[in-house]
User: Fold this.
Amino acid sequence: MAEATFLDSNELVINMGPQHPSTHGVLRVILKLDGEKVMGTDCVIGYLHRGVEKIGENRTYTQFAPYVDRMDYIAAVSNGLGYCLAVEKLLNAEAPPRAQVTRVILTELNRIASHLIWLGTHALDVGAITPLFYTLREREEILNIFEEYCGARLTTHAFRIGGLQYDLYDKFSEDVTSFCDRFSPRVDEYEALLTNNRIWVSRLRGVGVLNADDCKQYGVTGPVMRAAGVKWDIRRALPYSGYENYDFDIPVGTNADTYDRYLVRMEEMRQSVRIIRQAVANIPDGPIMGKVPKVLKPPVGEVYVSIEAPKGELGYYIVSDGTTQPYRLRVRPPSFINLQALDKMVRGTLIADCVAVIGTIDIVLGEVDR
Amino acid sequence: MKLWDKFLFTDLIQGLLTTFRQQHPKDIVTEQYPAQRPAVAERYRGAPRLNVDVETNETLCIGCNLCALACPENLIVVTTIRNAETKKKELTTFTYDTSRCMFCGLCEDACPVDALELTQDFELASYTRDGAVWDRQMLEEGPKPTKYDF
Assistant:
């Protein structure tokens, strides 16, 4: 909590959340205020706790896969990919090339969907209502592709350990390509609405600065870290699922403020479209399921696998004792760890900036609480 | 921001132009549910159904219990009796608790004879908790959602 002004009569402690539209779910932030100035914050989490890690210890490896979709439900496909890769590493199995390319396409589509939700809600928090309508419209097209592919829109359960359950549907490439064609100019439209807008710029520029050293100290990853100028992307640093075959840039910012994080995420959407175009052009033929046994009994051991989820580094640490169920399963959720930096970012600023900063961290409470 | 832009409000005009360009009626994507019903995908995972043979009206289920074992939530209960003459298992009851189902599709994947299937029906609401637990008859006939006339 705030170090100063404990006995000051001007000081006021108020709760923001858990039922506050700008806290993106059930986050409760206890604000210590001096007038409108934030002297300190305290996050209270756990309102959406479902004990996902404990559930994992009581399910078989295959059965646990649908539950990971329910952590970061905005980017369920990324969660599924991380979990499948972790168990595959434990089993020493690999998905066939066709499955890997499909995984990349769907994960990148999901990254765009996640960033669209972030853009819409973040703009809404700051005061621009219009972008939300457009971003949800485009997200709908992505969700339709997911629905056609795997039968679900949000909690997709799209991947299975060892590959895929569903093969691509007939018009998949056409749908994805036409989405890419329509989506690229749309990003420019969002930028036309926001990038130069004087209210947007003055609300975001210089707000919530978190420099590179602080990012490393707090373990902050993802777009928040890249906006601080650190060129760290797990897709490039520790490639998985064939990301080394694609040509894409890692956008970085310079000022480490909320405005730069906005620019980084906008550019990431463009880069995702670039990756999708390359992947769709080269979908190999072949099997979609690798050689994995029906009943999964990984050898005794432990594994940590992390992927670049839309919000940052998403890691799975699994300990196997040789039975059909994990002995321990731990998730490294990007939202939870990025949220720690909230206090550092908002201390000394105004309440309204606190709303902007919560938006820019891009948290999903399903993942923070698990 | 340049002084020129500041007084001519170019940033706001740029945004408003984008907004007005979206006003065309062909850009309306809102779906008027329930008057207009969505066409869900072929692979959509909705209400469960226990398929029957179209000619003989006998169930396709062989009572192997694999769906119940695959289910992460243990919500499927299958009971069978052994037919004394043919030595084959015959299905007696099949219950499926849709209130706990998360429609992951693992039961459907596990079924060796394509008897259990997640269909395109998506209106599963019920007034009671018991109504969410489907028995064999309900699973074979499928849900009957209220259809409204507009």
